[in-house]
Amino acid sequence: MDHNGAIMDASVVPATVAGAVAALERAYPPAHAQEWDAVGLVCGDPGEPVRRVVVAVDPTPAVVDEALAQDADLLVTHHPLLLRGVHGVPADEPKGAVVHRLIRGGCALFAAHTNADAASPGVSDALADVLGVVVEGPLASEGSPDGSSSTVGIGRIGHLERPEAFAAFVERVAAALPPTAWGVRGAGDPDRPISRVAVSGGAGDSMLGLVREAGVDAYVTADLRHHPADEHLQRPDAPALVDVAHWASEHPWCAQAAAVLRRALPGATVTVSTHRTDPWTLGAATGAPTGVVEPAPAPAAPPSLSDAIEGAVQQ
Asked: Are residue 97 and residue 136 in the same domain, yes or no?
């Protein structure tokens, strides 16, 4: 209860950096993060008040500019700024420059990475939701301490409300995600019926074996490499593949995290960044592939010696 005796919402936290961190870590427990990951508060004073928050996938300079232009007190990102160890943050280095700008601007930075990937709901739930996939459970379950099944884990398995052809499903994915230069690529029979689907936000070709074991019809993820994808597709009845831009696959999570913060900080203004932080800026289509490479035109034959001499005389 508050000081007037009114019953308070248990999800509401103090409107401070520490309160926002508590709400985010309740939604995305740090214990679910991979041991190599760097999650949590990157910089900022836990005791500072929070009135405005910006949520984004990446803490790029453009996103920091956006947060500071909004007088944000907290920037929440999926990708950590300092994922790999550093020995300093000088302002003349890219990552150091971001840290210095945030501190000077009075804006804290928080990252929820693999803990947000594994949480339920988490990154892949958000991806499944925008694609219209009804989630049934995790693709790679972490399991519960008592050995029972868990909703926590990387990736999600689910189903569409109605089956549709793979070509239509690829179009569904493209329409649901923000556009990028990379676009959306599909690998599989265009007419294959798609009903059960696996999704994994971010790089997901390490989970191709689990996808095959899951018995799904298609798998949506990012950063699929040539050799793993090719070897996967050579296996009998292998699920079709949909490859999207890394940033696009994780962008739906921003709205999810923003909702967490709006519930916890009802007096704060929480917005999702409008900046596209996918690093690729241009794309060029080469036409629809047919499976057959057309032979290149034969190069013109070099002139004979006599033709070359005759041409020189005429000049």
From this structure: no
